[in-house]
Write a structure and sequence with these properties.
CATH topology of the largest domain: Serine Threonine Protein Phosphatase 5, Tetratricopeptide repeat
Radius of gyration: 60 Å
Structural class: alpha+beta
Largest sheet: 5 strands, mixed
Number of domains: 3
Order of helices and strands: HHHHHHHHHHHHHEEHEEHEEE
CATH architecture of the largest domain: Alpha Horseshoe
CATH superfamily of the largest domain: Tetratricopeptide repeat domain
């Protein structure tokens, strides 16, 4: 069920007699001092049958203009008035005399007090958090701010030095560790970290001295002890290698010098083996390898075939024994030699 309209609700409150009296009341011009009209007054008068609708509109328009209204008109109210019979002139008069809405002053926002600027510890904590996430550039920015605000805190210089080390700015990290040691000469961690930076810069002896100092200041620092041992072992090994390199190497002269494959370029005389008729008739061919030994003058003193057809080996060995090679040399001195001669028997 829909809600009743404004006019239907008001009609139930007033009888026909009251409406007649209301119209007569509006027709009297001597009541200029009467109070403003309510919305109910207008709707009841518009529904009255004691005068024609144009007459009711004219009377109400004059009354509204002279006395005003007690309400603020809205599109909904104007729609209801028009449906009840109000003409444009009456609606315009009501709109002109409509009470203005009460202007509620806007609340003035309470100003929020400005927080005090952060101190060095705020930037230091944020820098440590950034460094922990691997965001070293952001960490360095915050460490710089913290150091500017607190120039006498050695821990800030150690932390910033570590960040610079991570960024491979080893020379700058050394300066921060220097400052930390200046402010607190017994800070073992500053010596340990400066040693690491110095080692990256190639200053191994200085790094070793810092590692030893860190181990002396903090006898429980196993990292410092391990670094000392590592560098000392490396230096000992390096010194041994240098000493070995400086010592002249005694060269032991071998009994034989291996010449590998021998060819005409090594020979003073290279004899070609005889290809026997029986081997040709038997269509025997291929390669024959002969191992040889050569004396100090280059003569072949031993020849033994190690591969090839048996019908060809003797001819290959005979040819090898009758060949002569250039003497082999070791440290510019003649030496016995061994080598291999390969003969190719081709049909």
């Amino acid at each position: 069920m829909t809600s009743p309209t404004i006019s239907s609700r008001l009609s139930s409150r007033f009888g026909v007699a009251v409406i007649a009296m209301f119209i007569a009341f509006f027709a009297t011009s001597a009541v200029a001092q009467n109070p403003p009209l309510s919305l109910a007054d207008l709707l009841i008068a518009l529904r009255s049958k004691k005068a024609t609708l144009p007459e009711r509109n004219q009377i109400l328009t004059t009354a509204v203009t002279e006395r005003g209204v007690t309400f603020t008109t809205t599109p909904e109210i104007e729609k209801e008035l028009t449906a009840t019979g109000a003409d444009p002139a009456l609606v315009a008069a009501i709109r002109a005399k409509s009470t203005k809405p009460v202007v509620v002053p806007k609340p003035v926002a309470t100003p929020i007090p400005t927080p005090a600027p952060p101190d060095f510890s705020y930037f230091a904590r944020r820098a440590e958090a950034s460094a922990g996430k691997g965001e070293l550039d952001a960490a360095l920015t915050d460490f710089n701010k913290a150091v500017e605000m607190k120039t006498d805190d050695p821990t800030l210089y150690v932390s910033r030095g570590r960040t610079l080390y991570g960024l491979k700015s080893y020379d700058l990290s050394v300066k921060d560790f220097d400052k930390a040691i200046e402010l607190s000469p017994k800070t073992a961690v500053a010596f340990l970290n400066r040693g690491a930076s110095l080692e990256k810069l190639g200053e191994v002896q200085k790094a070793l001295a810092d590692y030893k100092k860190a181990a002396d200041l903090d006898t429980t620092n196993e990292t410092a002890k391990n670094e000392v041992k590592r560098i000392e072992d490396a230096l000992t090994k390096e010194a041994a290698a240098k000493a070995a390199a400086a010592k002249p190497v005694e060269v032991v002269k071998p009994e034989f010098l291996n010449l590998g494959n021998l060819s005409a370029s090594n020979a003073e005389r290279m004899v070609t083996p005889t290809y026997s008729a029986i081997a040709r008739q038997s269509r025997v061919g291929g390669k024959v390898t002969v191992d040889v030994e050569i004396d100090l003058e280059g003569n072949v003193v031993f020849a033994k075939a190690s591969s090839g057809h048996g019908m060809l080996r003797q001819a290959a060995e005979d040819a090898a024994k009758r060949s002569k090679f250039k003497p082999a040399l070791f440290n510019n001195q003649p030496i016995k030699a061994r080598g291999v001669i390969t003969y190719n028997f081709s049909l």
